[in-house]
Design brief:
This protein has 14 helices and 15 strands. The chain is an alpha/beta fold and 407 residues long. It has two domains: 34-147 and 285-361, Rossmann fold; 151-283 and 367-403, Rossmann fold (3-Layer(aba) Sandwich). The chain has a seven-stranded mixed sheet with strand order 7-6-8-9-10-14-15, sandwiched between helices. β11 and β12 form a beta hairpin. α2 packs parallel to α12 (308-327). The longest helix has 23 residues, at 6-28. It is globular, with a radius of gyration of 24 Å. The N and C termini lie far apart (87 Å).
Length: 407
Amino acid sequence: MQKWLPGNIKLLLALLVLALVLAWVQRNHAQPTIKIGVLHSLTGTMATSETPLVDAVRLAVEETNQAGGVLGRQIEMIVADCRSDASYCAQQAEKLIAQDGVQALFGCWTSACRKEVKAVVEKHHHLFFYPLQYEGLEQSPDIIYTGAAPNQQLIPMVTWALQQRGKRAYLIGSDYVYPHTANQIVKKLLQAQNGQLVAERYVPLGGQDMDAIASEIARQRPDFVLNTLNGDSNVYFFRALQKAGIRADNIPVFSTSIGEPELAEIGPEQVAGHYAAWNYFQSIQSDANRDFIEHFRHRFGSQRVLGDPMEAAYIGVCLWVNALREADAPDIASVKAELIMQTLVGPEGIVAVDEDTQHLWKPVRIGRARTDGQFEIVWQSGRSVAPAPFPFFVPYEQRAALSGSTR
C-alpha cells in the first residue's frame, strides 16, 4: 500500500480547512429571510378562537420552508399578541411594517380589529390577509379577504333557516361592528322573505352573564336564534341555554363564529344539534382535506381539531407564497399583481381570488353540530360561489352608514 507523504497530509488538511471555511461563509452569508407578521390574540377573550390560527399559519410557513422556501429564501414568522384589543393590534401592525420590515401581514378576527389594522395597512400601501367571515360592505386594494363575504355564509344560512325552521328569528350578538352590521343585513333579509324579528339583543364582547337572554328566548320561543357572539361569550351562552331548558330540537341556534375548536372549548354535548355555516368543515371528505388534517395533527398533536378560520388562514399563506413565486420578486406591488390571478385547490375545495373585490370564490356549507365535536354537513352549494361583499338588497345610500359603524 502506498504510504502517505507529509505533503499529502498537509494538502488534505488544507482542503479540509478550506471546506470548513467555505461552509462557514455560506452559512453566515445566506439569503436573508422573508418576514411576515402574524397578528392574533393569544390572551384575552378572543384567545380561544384566535390562537389556533397562528398554528395554521405556522404549518403553511413550515411546509414552504421544508420544500426549500421561496425565491431561495426561508420565511420567518413574527407573531404579535393582539391581546383582544383592536387598538393595540393596530400598534403592533405599525411596528411590524415600519420596524420589522415584514412583507405581508396575516391576522385579526373581529371586524373592529380588522378596521383598525386596515387603516395602518392602507397608510403604508402594504398587504394584509384577513381570514374571517365578516359583514361585508368593504373592500381594499391592500387586503385579501380569505374568509366569507355575507353571501357566502350569513345570507345562505339565514335563508336556509327561514325555509327549514320558520319565520320568527331572535338575534343575539356581541356589541361591536360585525354583529350590528350583520344584523342590519339579516333584518333586511327577514323583511324580504316575510320573516319576523322577535328580538335583537347585544352583550359586551367577552360578556358572561347570559341568563336573562336565555330566559327571554325561552319565553319568546322563536323558530330559531341567530348567534353572532364572538369569543368566550359563546361558552356562557350555551351553558345558559342548557340551564333554561332550551334544546336544539325546539329552538335551534345558528352561529356564525362557532367552529370545531369552539365546540371543543364549549363542550360538544352542549352544542349538539345546533347549526353553523362555514366554507370549511373538518368533516369534508377530500384528498386535500385529509392531507391538511394529517399534516396539521402530525405537527401539533393528534387530538387537535381544525375549523374554517384556521383553513382560511392556511390558504392565505399558500396564495401569498404562490404569488411570490410567480412574481419572482419579493416587492409588494409585484406580489399584489399576481395575487389577483391566484387559484388553488384547498381543503375546502376550489378557491380563487376575485380580481374586482379581492375576496375569494368559495364553496358554502351549513353543518349541524355532533356530540363528537364535528359537524354533519346538511347543505352545501356544490360549487364555489362568487363573493358579493355588498349585498344587492342593501340600498347603495345605506352601505356607507353600515360599513362605517365602529361599535
